[in-house]
Every structure is written in C-alpha cells, then in structure tokens.
Amino acid sequence: MNGSVRMGVDKIHLRLLKSLLLPLFILLCTTEGTHAYAEELPAQNVLVLHSYQKGFAWSDEQSAGIEERLKSAAALPVIYTEYMDWKRYPNQENLEHFYETIKFKYQNIRIDAVLTTDDAALSFAMKYRGEILDNAPIIFSGVNELGVAGIPDTHNITGVIEKIDPTRTIQMALEINPSVKKVYVVFDNSESGLSTGKMVMDQIDALNLGLEIFPMNRFSIEQIKATASALSPDSIVLMTTYYSDSTGRIVEFDRFSSELGKSSSVPVYHIYDFGLNHGAFGGSLISGRIQGQTSAELALRILQGESADNIPVVTDSNVRNVFDYNELQHFSVPLDKLPEGSEIINKPFSFYQTYKVLVLSIIAAFAVLLTFIFVLLFYVQLVKRIRSNLEKSNERFSLATYGADAVIWDVDMSTMIYYFSDSWYELLGYERDEVNETRGGWRDLLHPEDAEQEDRLRTQHLEGRSSYYYAEYRMRSKSGEYKWFQARGKVLRNADGGYIRFAGSMVDVTDRKGYESKLQMSYQELESTYEELTALQDELLEQYNKVVENQALLQTSEEKYRLLAYNDVLSGLPNRLSLSEELKKFIQEHSGGHAALFFLDIDNFKYINDSMGHTFGDELLVKVGERLLELSDGRSKHFRFGGDEFVILFKDVDGYSEVIRYADSLVQGFKEPFQLSASVVHISASIGIAQYPENGVNAEELLKNADIAMYKAKEAGKGIYVIYGREMQQHFDERMIIEMHLRNAISNNELSLHYQPLVDIGSNEIWGFEALIRWNNPVLGFVSPLSFIKIAEDCRLIVPIGEWVLRTACQFIKDLQSQGYAGYHISVNISVIQLMLDDFTNMVLTVLRDTGLAPEYLELEITESIFMESFEAISSKLEALKEKGIGIALDDFGTGYSSLSYLKQLPITTLKIDKSFIDSIDTPNNMSLASSIVTIGHDMGLNVTAEGVETPEQLAFLERTSCDKIQGYYISRPIPEKEVAGWVAGRRAG
C-alpha cells in the first residue's frame, strides 16, 4: 500500500469512528443523571516563535505540523504564535522591536514552553528567556547540526535537528536511471544559498560515483530554464532553496520551481518537500511539517512533566522519501523502478489495487555520524587554509601599500567612511582617528585657499562632468607645516548610476611645488636683471645655471608623474590617455596599414565585486590583465580603461581572418578558470571589434564603434565577440532622425493628448482622467511613445515636452470643470529628468496658477525606478508639492524593487497596481499578491488604483478587495481630447 493512499484510508476510518462515537457520547450524557468532572486544571501556555514571515512556505509547513500535534493533545494547551520576519528584516532595529512586542504582549502570561523554528528565533529565545519568557523550556526545529553545536548553553533545551543530506536522493535517482552522469545543482547567491549549495555539492562528490556536478548559481532565471530544457537523458536537476537569481532579482520559490519543472527535459529532484506540487519530481525530502510535529511532540512531553534535559535531540525523523505521480508519468517512469518504500503523491485512487506495505531501509546512524564528522573535519581544514591564504593576501597588500610612493584612499559612498593607507599618516604625522579623518575630518586639514577648488573638482567628477577626479591642494601636517598633494581618483557606479565607491591615490608633490616656486623666482629675477645685462654678466650666468638646474629637476618630476598619468595604478597597464596617443601615432606612421581595436568588458563583474568584495575584484582585474598579456602574439598592446574595461590594439593586421583568429583565441583564453588565492573563478568577456581604416580613421571613431560592437555582443548573449558593421550605425541614425523631428514637434502642433478615464469603484463615478501623449509627424507618421520618450529624455527635450503636457492637461481638466463636471481630477506622468531640475516645483505651481486649477485636482505619476535611483534628490520636491495638496501616485507598483520599509518614506498618496498583476489574477498566487498590494496600500493610508482592467471578472475581484479606483479598456480606451465631453455625457445618460 503506497503512503498517500494509506493515509487517505486511515482518515476515512477515523471519520467513521468519530461519527459512531459522537451520538453514543451524546446519548450517555443525556441519560446519566450525574456528571463526573475531573478537577479542571489551568490551561498551559505554549509560545511559538517563527524566524521568518507568515506566508513563507517553510515556516508555514513547520507551523502547520506544530499546531496539528498540539491541537490533537488530550489536554489542549493555549497556543500563541509570533513571527520575527528575519529573512526580510535581518537587523538590530527589527530585533529590538520584536523584543518590545514580546515583552509587552506576554508580561501577564505565564509561558510553559517555547517552540522556535530556525536559527533566528532560537537565538532570540535563548537570549531573553530568563528576562521575558519565564525561563521556559525551549524546543527548537529547523536548525542544522552546526547551529545546534554552536548553542552555548544547552540547559533546558531540546529539539529537532534539520539535516541537509542529498545522498539518498542521488542514490534514488541512480536506482531510477543508472545512466545518470551529470547533476545540475540549483541554488542562489545569498549567504545561506551558497553555504547550502556547497554542502550539497561536497556531499555528492564525497559519494565517489564519478558524477559531474554543475552549479547554476551564476545563471539568471531564463538561463537556468533554457539550460534545463536542453539537458541530455544522462542528467538530473537538484533543487535547493532559491529566492533570487544571479542578477539579484527576487523570485517566488513556488512559481520558479513550477516553471523549472515544466521546462526541464529531465527530472527535477528537490531537497525540501515544499517543492511538491510545484514541479518537484521527488527525492529524499526534508519535511517542515514533520519537524513541526516532532518538536510539538517533545513539547507535550515537557508539558506532561518530563525535563527537557532528559529528552535527547531528535536527528532522524524529518525526511520523506516521496515522488509526484504526475511527474513520474511526465517522464515515463514506471512505479516498479522506484526505490522500495517510496511514498507517492497525486496517484489516482483505485479500489481494486492491492495495498502493500513498503518497508523503508534505514541507513545506519553510526555511518551517517562518521560521514558528518569526516565532512566537518574537511570543512575545518578548508577554513584554516582559506584563513591562512587570506592573511597572506592581506600581508602582501599591506606591504605593497606601505612601500608605495603614493597614498591610497578610498570612500564607501553608502556610509561616507574614508580610508587612508599608512603612507598618509606617515607623511602628515597623525595617529589613526586623531583628526576624525574617517568621518570627513581630513577636510579640516585643507588649506583655506584650496578647499573650495577641491570641493568643486570633486563635485564635478561625481556629477559625471569629468572622466576622473584630479586636484592639487595643501594639507596641514601635525607640525603645522603645509604639504602639497596631487590627488587622482574615480567613482564606481552601479547599473542605475548610483555611487558605490570612490577611490584613488595621493602623491606628495611638495618638492615639485618647491622646484616650481624656485623656477618662478628665477624667471622673475631674470626679468628684473635684464636691463642690467651688460653690467651684470657674471650674475646673469649664475642665474641661468640655476634655471637649467631647476628645469632638469622639473623634467625629472614631470616624467615621474607622466608615468602615473599614462598608466593604470591597479594593473600597471597603459590607460585611456596612452591609448589615444598610441592610436594617433599608429595612424600617422601607418596611413596605408591595417589594425583592429578590441574592446573587452568582463561579464557580470559587478556581481562578482558585490558578492566577493572589492579586494577580490581588484585581484581578478590584475589576473585578467596578466591573462591578456599571455595571449599576446607580440603585435598587440594592452590597455585598461578603468572598472572592468580593457582595450587591445592589434597592429599590422594581414586580413579579416587574422582578426577572427585572434578574437577566437581571446574567447578561448577566458574559458580557462582564474586562480585567486584559494578560489577558482570562471568568467567570460564580451568583445567588440572595430577595424582600421574600415570602421574609423581616428581614435575617437574606432573607440566609439568598438564600444557599440561590445554592447551588441552583450545583447547577443555575452562571452562572445562582435565585429562592428554599418548596420549597427543604422540604429543611431534612426535615433537622430527621430530627435531632429522631435525638436519641432511642439512648435508644429504635432503633439496631442488622449485621456483615459479613472473610475471610483465605490461610487461608480468618474474620478478623473490620465493624460497620455501622442505624436503624429508629417514625415514619420504616428510614432509610439515607447520609441520617442526615451530619446526625448536622453536629449533633454522631455523638459519642454513635459511642461507642455502638464499645462495642456491642467487646462483641459479646468475647462471640463467649467462645463459642469466639477470634481474631476487629472493624472500626469512625470520624467526623472524633469524631477532633477532645480525649478521643477516652481514650474508645477506656475502651471497651476496660470491655468487656475486647484492643486487638489492634480495628481503626478512617478515610477518606482525613479524613486530608487534619485530618492534624496527628488523626495523633498515631491514632499513640498504634496503639502500643497497635489497627489503623488507610485506607478507600476510591484514591478520595481522597493522594500516596504523604504516605501513608508516615500511622499506618495496613491499606489497604482501594474497591469501585469491584473492580467493574471485568475491564478491563486497572483490573486493573493494583488489583494496583498491593496491591503498594504490601505494599511499605509494610501489610495489604490488598478491599471489594465479589461474583463468583468477582474472588476469583480477588485471590488471584493476594496480597491479604490480602476482604469482600463473595460471602462474605455484613451479618448481624444475633443471626444471626452461627449463620452462623459453619454456615460451619464446611460
């Protein structure tokens, strides 16, 4: 008898027994003349602390198991449940808030037992049980062996260990398909994901079955599904936990697991049983429900009088050997191929089947314990080696920094904490933190005459108006003497343009400045003595010798700083300035020759830098430069532009085929892994190639075209090369044509507005309209906003166009109100370019004053990405407009990446649910998500508007969720301005 059918029959028998006993019990109660009650004892109180949020599948499974067992007890305890939400808010502020909540809620409640799920809740309970939890016994679950081993005081503590072991799953997979040779392991790049992934892969490798293991944490969601769809029959996929892909995008585990199961050409085995019914083929799965039931059983024993110290920790009762019948059918796996004792879910019930009891074989506990000890010893040795290598690396960096002539400085732009290498303190004579230099105190050392210029140059670079930061200024040493420094640096930005790190070097140029001063004085003396040349020849000769001497010193100094100016500090390779001069020299000396320019960009370098650290990233860049030099054939010269960009000038090219061969060698060269300390890194590079003179006759053209080709290579899939072609230029030519016509769109009256109605669900009345721009050009015809809005933003034409849209829309709604439609509002989309203008607030208020529209009838729509990119710059402006009564709507909510804690800080009045959520509300998950967004908005005191409503079923759902307003084709398409009044009148008449 399989497990699922057997459980179903047991439930039927139980229900029949209850139906027979209940009437008998009632009859006995009514006929008995006396009632015998045992002395009622006060109910015992059980507090359940969950580490993560309600709705998180793993926590919900444990919670369900705990409540099932506790509620089945003869003496039912009172159950209190709290959620720390530690996965989304793992910070001290959350911990303090949770502490105050528990302390307040249970100050008058006696706690008899505390059940915790996962590590965070266990740590909290152990820390505060003496203070606010009545020293109650603690029963934990969801904690692995390392976590349990780290418990400082095990007094009055017991629980259930969560043991992650893919060994049985791999053995089951081999029993089903002995030809399996490859295992693709899916895990994410979070700290726990990397730890779990490494543990799983090491345990598979320790089986010594000759299996090839392929980690998939460097792939995006789409790449994982594409790879899984093309796997050969000798492969399987092993799924661990997964909550974000390699791009940092947050994913829903259930949805991603289901999509992966559908697209995979081979079975997808899992580690946890919450993957069942979501694409999981099966395996030896860790069950949160079983863990919860087991921990609750331990709690009941304690409530009945047993001591927690006398109850051993449970290690082997939280695993199910289970398979999904639907997945077995999908991959044509017969039931007799399954390991003996396997549980099968979703199998159709058949009354004529003969039930058989499957006996599960038990792996010897001693063997498992020995295996775990050996694995633990291996990890201890590995950690020791990593620590040793890290100490050596830090020692090398410290020696290099101390021995360098230049001062190395660095600023973490998120915290504005400064770092200076030891040379800075040696030159100026200060001790660390003596002048609060890490918090900006170094600015107080600047000479008053130099401070303003230094600040201006720094701001100029941070705002993108200079390619690098360069400044010369004086700083006061501890002795009171001022020293001259030449500072150079560059800011590192993220994909959204925000600051990450600002770093560079400083060189003591006091001697050079002294030489320059002496030289200037010599020139002045030479001029003053010119008129006395005849009488003072001997003195003039002496002065001339001084000038020659000073010039020689100056030349030596300039050569030294020229080396710094023309070479990259990190890799030692020539920089962008060197490349420009090298190209000009080659073109001048080889007017009839041929060359190729290779523009290389390391793929996904940002994620390597973020996950492994900037020191690791810098070491990788140095290794890349060395690899490129190894691949050189003697005719190529290598340059580093900064960041992860490298350029190769390949001179004296004989033909197209030679360029291809060299490009192939570069691609192949990057397929070899990079050895960094104790780590092995696999990377790829996207390469753009421009040929001289075919693709440019000067340095600027060649660099531009090679850069265009490189971006085409990234769009084509990364890790490849693309040679520049004229068709790539076509895209830019088309863009220039649109920009040219767009410049006259307002003056030629080519722009118009359409208005899409917004309806209040509660009253079924029209709330107002959203203004949508349209462009009809005599030459280009109707041009989609998706095509021209981005171009308008890039060339800043969005500023006059945006003001025209705002003024036209406000005048339209004011005129509509004057026609008897009082109370109608207008909603206008705003670009981030407009918001960044200093006079944006004044512009909006001026338009309202000129059109006579009251502020409360205007709503500005801003997308999530605008807030996240420029929060500090625009928040104050929008807050000022909001105080005037103007509404602020957050458009396309749910498609961005803002957290709820961050959302509370935004000066908004309305949330607009994106159309993608409304289109798919027929699925339970998306229906729940859309409903949750409405609840979140209302809890924050915001109005909620749903976009893209097209069916009566969608409207009915939104009415049930108490959504405030809707817009979409179900109400009306966008209406031309001249037809709006007629549409409104017709709706009222209807």
Automatic annotation (TrEMBL):
Superkingdom, natural source: Bacteria
UniProtKB keywords: Coiled coil, Membrane, Transmembrane, Transmembrane helix
Residues annotated as domain PAS: 393-465
Stretches assigned to the EAL domain: 735-988
InterPro entries per record: ABC_transpt-TYRBP-like, Biofilm_reg_signaling, EAL_dom, EAL_sf, GGDEF_dom, Nucleotide_cyclase, PAC, PAS
Residues annotated as transmembrane: 357-380
Gene3D superfamilies for this protein: 3.30.70.270, 3.40.50.2300, EAL domain, PAS domain
Record domain PAC: where: 469-521
Domain GGDEF residues, every copy: 593-726
Pfam family, one: ABC_sub_bind
Stretches of the chain forming a coiled coil according to its record: 516-550
NCBIfam families: GGDEF, sensory_box
Protein name per UniProt: EAL domain-containing protein
